[in-house]
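Hey, why these numbers?
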Amino acid sequence: MKSTKITYWVTTILLFLMEGLMPALTSQSEMAKESIAHLGYPAYFGIALTCFKVLGALTLIIPQIPGRLKEWAYACFFIEFLFASVSHAAVDGITGETFIPLIAVAVLLLSYTSYHKLQQQ
């Protein structure tokens, strides 16, 4: 139980930092804008993506949020990470940047499975 709780909080805090805090602080930087444009997405997509990332990250980190909303946040992050990987592969070919979102999927799946183990106890 203790190791499951530690796994849950470590992975969930990592997700919060990657998907909540970082985008909130850097979304309007030139590098972020260039990255969105490089992948072929319009500028407004980056703004919308940042808003949803922050909301999803808050949903995962706040314990009082209902489980059903957390399920949606996990699903949306899973889709986002997969599409990020596909976008990088489609634009730049298979490079190191293609696999970074898949590492985030592994962290997400660890958080998700430990969340469910905690809910069953």
